[in-house]
Q: What sequence folds into this?
């Protein structure tokens, strides 16, 4: 009896645990995939070739907090504004003056959101792999240098750097492992003031949690019927989120980073398919495992069944006794298994994703039902077999 | 001495014969136990095989994120020779490469209205670039180009129109737009054409500006140092955006599959050990009879543990087969390609089968050995 309860409990725990993971896997993996950085760029729209040759249009900084007011606002997990300008840089110890790209940005900044609340915006919200030795530039007098630039010209944190002839203190060295390693970085407001571009931005990077791209998502919204358009707009595709961002940034063009969207769609699809398949296989196996235990447990009691039959119980009554027993085992095992799975799910959530997986109330009834079904099904096989026994032969132990 | 040897031999023979007889006469019971053990070990093999193979499978899915190593000309050189591609192709650490040639050119719309602007021309493996990007029209053939999304907006150009491109040395080319591409990256501000075409337009035959490389996930640092030795005149860099993110991601997913596997294996081991235990309880009478005939506790224990070992091995082998098929089916379903479970897991599966069978037998066996034979045989136990 105890064996059967343990066995049913384990099977149920497995079921409830795997279902919790499988149901949550897409959301959790999608947020893991955000480590790969921004998936939407917002830039000023381009009207003519002159806009390509030199930047003449800008985004407005005041539109930035509006990114947290769109339909899919809760899916926006990172926002980083940039102003790009050319500057002349000369190390205090160096001879040469170099023309480099300066980026005015935020590294980590609490941004006020319309309608209350704050949001941690800045580079680290979209590009967690940026490293800084020292501190991010703050205020009007500080600059951070890209790692390659620093290496080439011997710039160290604490040095003085002449930018367009004015002295700045080097607050840190930024190491990105990309073309940004050749740039210098300022606080956004500092570069805006220096270049007379108050309130202007050249680019905004956005990191958003998205639904994987499917065939429908790749269609051009311009060709959709109103109903389709509404469905598209209200699904968290990277394209529809980009569209909504374009609507809040005046004069902008928002584009998905297609390689990111494409890869995420594929990885999400494949990983969740893998988890679903593993779950299905494991559940079949555990159902089989539990029912073999039930069968084995009942088979040793064939003597009991034979006795019952010989003193007048009919097949139905005999079966009823054993099935009721199975129901009790199923119930107790189901409860124990569900409780066990709560512990396991919590552990896996914290260990793998650093956050608890969603608790789903429906898992309790599902677990209990599954436990009943498995234990009854297992007993049914055994009881059927037992009922075929001839009592006289059985009791004489001639099998 | 001799008699002792003879006795020992006799004992062994008795032991072997009884074991075989016991397995042969109770085929049904043995089959149920083997099946149960096979289920548990199949789960172990399937989950273990997928755990071992997941990193490579997912890693190759991540290749469309982009390169994780950049090779560019070192020192004061402007170009790499195209011959590096051949040498790179033989390097096992490199799983993919895209040659790049960057040039600046003056772009005008046909007829010269709407002004002109200096834009970047990218020569590359266009087929690889467009994978997953939004492409309107088709990939360029000779005399054709792809136009980036911002350039399209600037020119109000459409597929099939032509644009005029003027190179640095003053040669003017008229090129047909075969398609429009949107990547969200720097290609949106550029003209894209097949590498050979760009080499021809700019008279840079055999020259490259850079090679974007894909090292296996987690191997980019090794690839950088290895290739640095192979190509001392080139500069090699890890592109951290992809390299570090994919490492972190793959580690997380490996951990997920590992914990998933532990849960599956543990739960199925416990639920099947019930079967092994139950079949033993069924045989209390046998044990009583053996004791009554004078068998020592040690002999009985050895007998049943040996039986458990045989059944466990059978279960392990069967389980390996089922698990192998399961891992194959799961990887085909999810990735469209195979994860072949390493044969190294076969002994592990057998060991697991034996372990589960033996552990499941120990408790009921010690219980049975404490019982009085007469009571068991009379049936009051």
A:
């Amino acid at each position: 009896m105890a064996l059967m309860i343990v066995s049913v409990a384990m099977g149920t725990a497995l079921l409830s645990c795997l279902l919790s993971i499988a149901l949550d896997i897409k959301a959790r993996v999608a947020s893991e995939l955000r480590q790969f950085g921004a998936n939407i760029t917002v830039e000023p729209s381009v009207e003519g070739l002159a806009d390509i040759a030199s930047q003449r249009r800008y985004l407005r900084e005041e539109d930035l907090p509006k990114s947290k007011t769109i339909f899919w606002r809760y899916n926006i997990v990172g926002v980083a504004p940039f102003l790009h300008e050319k500057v002349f840089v000369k190390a205090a110890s160096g001879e040469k003056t170099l023309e480099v790209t300066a980026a005015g940005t935020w590294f980590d900044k609490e941004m006020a959101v319309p309608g209350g609340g704050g949001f941690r915006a800045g580079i680290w919200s979209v590009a967690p792999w940026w490293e800084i030795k020292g501190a991010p530039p703050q205020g009007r007098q500080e600059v951070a240098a890209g790692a390659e630039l620093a290496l080439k010209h011997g710039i160290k944190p604490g040095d003085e750097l002449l930018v367009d002839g004015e002295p700045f203190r080097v607050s840190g060295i930024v190491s990105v492992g990309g073309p940004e390693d050749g740039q210098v970085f300022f606080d956004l407001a500092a570069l805006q003031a220096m270049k007379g571009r108050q309130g202007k931005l050249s680019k905004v990077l956005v990191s958003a949690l998205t639904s994987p791209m499917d065939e429908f998502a790749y269609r051009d919204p311009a060709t959709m019927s109103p109903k389709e358009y509404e469905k598209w707009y209200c699904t968290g595709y990277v394209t529809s989120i980009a569209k909504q961002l374009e609507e809040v940034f005046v004069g902008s063009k928002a584009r998905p980073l297609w390689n990111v969207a494409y890869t995420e769609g594929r990885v999400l699809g494949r990983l969740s398919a893998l988890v679903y398949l593993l779950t299905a296989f494991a559940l079949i196996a555990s159902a089989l495992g539990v029912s073999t235990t039930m069968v084995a447990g009942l088979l040793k009691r064939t003597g009991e069944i034979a006795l019952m039959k010989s003193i007048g119980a009919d097949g139905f009554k005999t079966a009823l006794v054993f099935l009721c027993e199975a129901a009790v085992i199923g119930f107790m095992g189901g409860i124990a298994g569900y409780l066990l799975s709560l512990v396991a799910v919590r552990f896996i959530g914290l260990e793998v994703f650093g956050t608890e997986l969603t608790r789903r109330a429906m898992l309790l009834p599902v677990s209990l039902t599954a436990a009943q079904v498995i234990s009854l099904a297992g007993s049914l096989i055994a009881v059927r077999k037992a009922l075929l026994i001839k009592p006289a032969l059985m009791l004489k132990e001639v099998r | 001495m001799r008699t002792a040897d003879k006795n020992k031999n006799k004992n062994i023979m008795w032991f072997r014969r009884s074991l075989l007889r016991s397995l042969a006469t109770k085929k049904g019971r043995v089959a149920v136990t083997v099946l149960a053990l096979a289920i548990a070990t199949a789960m172990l093999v399937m989950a273990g095989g997928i755990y071992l193979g997941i990193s490579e499978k997912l890693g190759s899915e991540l290749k469309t994120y982009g390169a994780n190593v950049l090779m560019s000309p070192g020192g004061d050189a402007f170009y790499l020779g195209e011959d590096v591609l051949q040498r790179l192709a033989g390097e096992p650490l490199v799983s993919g490469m895209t040659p790049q040639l960057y040039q600046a050119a003056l772009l005008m719309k046909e007829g010269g209205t709407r002004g002109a602007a200096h834009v970047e021309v990218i020569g590359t493996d266009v087929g690889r670039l467009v994978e997953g990007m939004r492409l309107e029209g088709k990939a360029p053939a000779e005399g054709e180009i792809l136009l980036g999304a911002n350039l399209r907006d600037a020119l109000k150009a459409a597929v099939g129109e032509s644009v005029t491109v003027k190179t640095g040395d003053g040669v003017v080319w008229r090129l047909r737009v075969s398609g429009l591409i949107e990547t969200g990256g720097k290609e949106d501000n550029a003209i894209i054409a097949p590498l050979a075409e760009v080499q021809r337009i700019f008279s840079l035959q055999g020259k490259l500006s850079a090679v974007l490389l894909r090292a296996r996930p987690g191997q980019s640092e090794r690839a950088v140092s290895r290739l640095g030795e192979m190509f001392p005149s080139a500069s090699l860099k890890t592109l951290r955006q992809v390299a570090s993110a994919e490492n972190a991601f793959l580690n997380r997913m490996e951990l997920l599959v590992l914990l998933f596997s532990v849960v599956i294996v543990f739960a199925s081991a416990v639920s099947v050990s019930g079967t092994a235990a139950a079949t033993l309880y069924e045989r209390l009478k046998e044990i009583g009879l053996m004791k009554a005939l004078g068998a020592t506790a040690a002999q009985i224990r050895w007998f049943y543990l040996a039986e458990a070992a045989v059944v466990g091995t059978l279960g392990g082998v069967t389980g390996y087969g089922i698990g192998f098929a399961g891992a194959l089916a799961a990887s085909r379903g999810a990735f469209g390609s195979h994860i072949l479970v390493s044969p190294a897991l076969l002994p592990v599966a057998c060991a697991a089968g034996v372990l589960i069978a033996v552990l499941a037998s120990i408790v009921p066996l010690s219980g049975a050995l404490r019982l009085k034979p007469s009571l068991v045989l009379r049936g009051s136990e």
Observations:
- The mean pLDDT of chain A is 87.
- The first helix of chain A runs from residue 2 to 33.
- The first strand of chain A starts at residue 40 and ends at 44.
